[in-house]
Amino acid sequence: MFDNILFQKDTCTELKKDILENTLAPSMLIHGAALSGKTTLALELARVLTCRERDELGRWTCSCWSCRQQRELSQNQVLVLGSSDFRTEIKVCRKYFDQARENQLESKHLKILLLVWLRSLHKVLKRYDEALWKDGKTKTDKERKARKVQEEFVELLAKLRPGDIFGQKGTEETKKTMAQSREIIFQDKKLLDKDLDRCQELADILIAAIPQGIPVQQIRQLQQWSYRTSETCKVAILENVDAMNQAASNAMLKLLEEPPHNCYFILTTRRKQGLLPTVLSRLRLFGLRERSETEERKIVQKVFRTSGTETLRELFLTGEQDFSQIQAECALFMQSLLEKRPFFMIKSSFDKLHLEAFLQNLGLALQKECIEQHRKAEGPLAEHNFFWYQRFLQLGRKAIEQHKIYHDPAILLLQNLYLELLHEGSTEN
């Protein structure tokens, strides 16, 4: 059970114990730093809870119909809500699948990497479950366009699907026929590339219409879905719940106060302090630790069948920039703050800034700095460092939102952030 959740043994052991003893809470919060595996754990927990094979409960290779669908994220008893960095995950998964084709890896590995890429696309598709769309109605041009391409997207995903290589059933002759038919998709490179590229084009259209955060309307739709009768248990996964507004949080609170029978709610966040205290009080908390660079490399090697040395952070938190460049920019930003330099002195270093990637890495760097300072200091200085970090998180999220939604220039937003932090530091000192 939870064998594919790497380097989070303590939390996985705790969850396994609750499941086997039938004491698992109906409402849970999985919290931890970026790339600690929150969504992966939530999806795996959902698979275990909906598994139909008691003798194989929790095995990643379980062949029951529910687990086969869950591995592809097509199980209709599981809803997934919330925004995420879909494009980066899709890009990284495609990169390693193309790399495997170029290196002519054996067919089994190619199929696994294709499934990993398709799974990243299904995460987008899950946001379009009919249960979350009231009467299928759309309000914006982006939503209407997304709904139009959805059918083509589903058909392409089905066409590319290499089959469940873990849970095939039937006679040996049937398996051989199925395997031969699936090899066809790898034979015509140009046709395969065309289908892969079209999938990503359609995914971009769908991603553009996914709302930031979780709208209150979706929480209300979730409530209706959760009370529907079902032969199996249902699971709702809500990603990055700290991005919910006040109305959505209040609606979620009502649902958690009277959770329906046989339905589980799994919430995830990087910042549990961003949730209402009343919401937090109704959740069982499971924390994930930040994994080391060595552990991150092992995860990349295992998931993507590579012998490379990239870390998860280098792959997922850099955007289009080189990781060493982002590290240098973060170091310059922090050193300039400490020395209280005017922003115009360092502005030229951030002209080609990928704002979200920079802020994510800067947040991790600031967090480590605050923890280190907290170990060395007591009293006001330690409290100041914590306050400063919390203020950065608040300003950083606001900057990313303004950049994504209102298209404010990244360099201007970064300048405002710098001046705010400089002012906070001067005030507190």
UniProtKB/TrEMBL annotation:
Pfam family, any one: DNA_pol3_delta2
Protein name according to UniProt: DNA polymerase III subunit delta
